[in-house]
Design a protein that fits this description.
Number of domains: 3
Strand order of the largest sheet: 3-2-4-5-7-6
Bound molecules: adenosine-5'-diphosphate, ligand TPW, magnesium ion
CATH superfamily of the largest domain: Thiamin diphosphate (ThDP)-binding fold, Pyr/PP domains
Number of helices: 24
Largest sheet: 6 strands, parallel
CATH class of the largest domain: Alpha Beta
Strand content: 15-25%
Distance between the termini: 62 Å
Number of strands: 19
Shape: globular
Structural class: alpha/beta
């Protein structure tokens, strides 16, 4: 256990042989590097300004943001994309709290992230003596994180970082808080002793193999199904077992639905993809095989009208987290393990020995998919001005098909729901969106992380409201000259731009913004390319130019004010009351 003390020897050596010493700053950087951390998403200030400088000097990539929330969202997205903890670094109290939203977001989405925050000394915080940016951060972080640790002594830095890395990655991944009091960074110790104290975490996300009984049970349930369905979630995308998942889905031969961030794990154009027949397969299927997807609100908890008759389905579920089972519906066959190992175990039993579901079922699903795609096609080709979601997103669908390595970032309400259903994704982990919380403002952090971590072109399709939560980070995009093209779906407001103030007063409605805002000028202010697109042809041209130049670009895409719906596809989640509807006749029309 560490008890760093400035012995007389150490004090003397700071004068005579400083090169034989190390300090908290360097131990923390070395410990992170030893564990494969190459990038830090950061906002500087006391007490971590120099930590960022030294990390940069030591060859790490340190990207400074304009606000911690977006640095944190970038770290969370990096965790999802790389299967390694994304690291965010913040100052004490307010900076920490700004970053905490992102840490909670990472935990909610089961992504590995480490929030390192500077803090005040415990002696001052615990007696509430009123320090500069004083706060009991460890206690506040704990309920929002998978784990939370504080390091008090330089010789414990190796241990603290190892604990954080392992906790972030092991089992169900999540966000970890690492509290770093300012004084720790300045602590000095012998360099040789210091480097011995560092720990390289071995096998932080070990394979977790399902029991043979669980595999047989799952296959028994699926064998007896007449109308089976697979739902693939972002846990499967995260697992990076792409080939195995593909082989499993193709061997089983079931229709499948990708959840939004699992799109592209198999291409959305795959013949088994049932996205365009979602209502049919959810309602009619008799067996649902969940692969890294929770039966949470995004799947209406596996119940209700969308799911057809109650109790008519059997569920099989792969998840790394045993406690996930039965959280919403009884799981007839739980498969506890990592997706690669579970898929592998299933495949071993069924390769060359599996009867695919009958053509009655798969053919009916396929016909519905084809009919719906055909019905939609002409709408995606319209050249209306102002644009609607179909015309504008039809262009983006084409351009993503032509450039399948592009990472699509997407947030908003209609801008999100329409883009998710219209724009096909062709490769794994090429779509980043609002995740489990449906959180607005993740767009710029996600876009920056995607560009930094993959080196690929990024296209961020942003509702004008969603963009407003993170818009200042376009300066960050320009500063690092990242290949990020932002398309603002500008309908002058939240859901729609034509809302009215029901009091008849002068204030605008609660859901509308300044009409015809010139977002493109914001981008020009920072030296990026900023243009408007009034129709789909202009939008196509502007995106093509951005892709060709890879310059930071913002396209203000003019969408009709009345094109969207209240809350996009989830208007049903708004509370309503008969009393209010009687009082405000307008409410009935929403
Ligand atoms: P979606 O929102 O796409 O439906 P969720 O976030 O609800 O997906 O579910 C992802 C699930 O995947 C979580 O329950 C998580 O525990 C699980 N998971 C994450 N990584 C792995 C892995 N490597 N192997 C198995 N399950 C995993
Ligand atoms: C952190 C609530 C959900 S969707 C949305 C808000 C404010 C904006 C929708 O408007 P946008 O898209 O982006 O212009 P469009 O195309 O429909 O007009 N605060 C947070 N998260 C959420 N989800 C909200 C508020 C919300
Ligand atoms: Mg809008």
């Amino acid at each position: 256990m560490g008890v760093t003390q400035m012995t007389d020897d150490l004090v003397a050596r700071t004068e005579t042989d400083p090169e034989t010493l190390t300090d908290g700053f360097h131990l923390l950087i070395d410990a992170l590097k030893l564990n494969g951390v190459e990038t830090i998403y950061n906002v500087p200030g006391i007490p971590i300004t120099d930590l960022g400088r030294y990390a940069q000097a030591q060859g790490m990539r340190v990207l400074s943001f304009r606000h911690e929330q977006h640095a944190g969202y970038a770290a969370a997205a990096a965790g999802f994309l790389t299967k390694k903890p994304g690291v965010c670094m913040t100052v004490s109290a307010p900076g920490f709290l700004n970053g905490l939203t992102a840490l909670a977001h990472a935990t909610t989405n089961c992504w590995p992230m480490i929030l390192i925050s500077g803090s005040s000394e415990r002696e001052v915080v615990d007696l509430q003596r009123g320090d500069y940016e004083e706060m009991d951060q460890l206690a506040i972080a704990r309920p929002h994180a998978k784990a939370a640790y504080r390091i008090l002594h330089a010789e414990d830095i190796g241990l603290g970082v190892a604990r954080a890395v392992r906790a972030a990655l092991t089992g169900r991944p999540g966000g970890v808080y690492l509290d770093v009091p300012g004084a720790l960074l300045g602590q000095v110790m012998d360099e040789v002793e210091g480097s011995k104290s560092l720990i390289k975490v071995v096998d932080p996300s070990p394979a977790s193999v399902p029991s043979p009984e669980a595999v047989d049970r799952a296959l028994d349930v699926m064998k007896n199904a007449k109308k089976p369905l697979i739902i693939i979630g972002k846990g499967a995308a995260y697992a990076q077992a792409d080939e195995k998942v593909k082989e499993l889905v193709e061997t089983l031969g079931f229709p499948y639905l990708p959840m939004s961030m699992a799109k592209g794990l198999l291409p959305d154009t795959h013949p088994q993809c049932a996205s365009a027949a979602r209502s049919l397969v959810l309602k009619e299927s008799d067996c649902v095989f969940l692969i890294g997807a929770r039966l949470n609100w995004l799947l209406s908890h596996g119940e209700g009208k969308a799911w057809g008759e109650k109790g008519a389905k059997q569920f099989v579920q792969i998840d790394i987290e045993p406690n996930e089972m039965d959280s919403n519906q009884p799981i007839a066959a739980p498969l506890i393990g990592d997706i690669g190992s579970c898929a592998g175990a299933l495949l071993e039993k069924i390769r060359g020995n599996w009867e695919k579901p009958s053509e009655d079922w798969t053919g009916a699903v396929r016909s519905k998919v084809e009919a719906n795609i055909e019905r939609m096609a002409p709408r995606l080709k319209n050249n209306n001005s102002p644009m609607d979601y179909q015309g504008s997103l039809g262009v983006i669908k084409d351009l993503i098909a032509e450039n399948p390595d592009t990472v699509l970032v997407n947030e908003g309400a209609n801008a999100l729901d329409q883009c998710r259903s219209i724009v096909d994704i062709h490769k794994p982990r090429k779509r980043l969106d609002v995740g489990t919380w449906g959180i607005m403002g993740v767009g710029m952090g996600s876009a920056i992380a995607a560009a930094v971590e993959t080196g690929d072109q990024v296209l961020a399709v942003e509702g004008d409201s969603a963009f407003g939560f993170c818009g200042m980070e376009i300066e960050t995009v320009c500063r690092y000259n990242l290949p990020v093209c932002i398309v603002i779906m500008n309908n002058n407001g939240i859901y729609r731009g034509d809302g009215e103030n029901w009091s008849g007063g002068e204030d605008p409605s609660t859901t509308v913004f300044v009409k015809d805002s010139k977002y493109e000028l914001m981008m020009q202010a920072f030296g990026g390319v900023g243009v408007t697109a009034d129709n789909p042809d202009e939008l196509r041209q502007a995106i093509k130019e951005a892709f060709a130049s890879r310059k930071p670009t913002l396209i203000n895409a003019i969408i009709a004010e009345d094109a969207g719906k209240e809350s996009g596809n989830i208007g049903n989640l708004n509370p309503s009351s008969v009393v209010a509807q009687n009082r405000y006749p307008q409410a009935k029309n929403i």
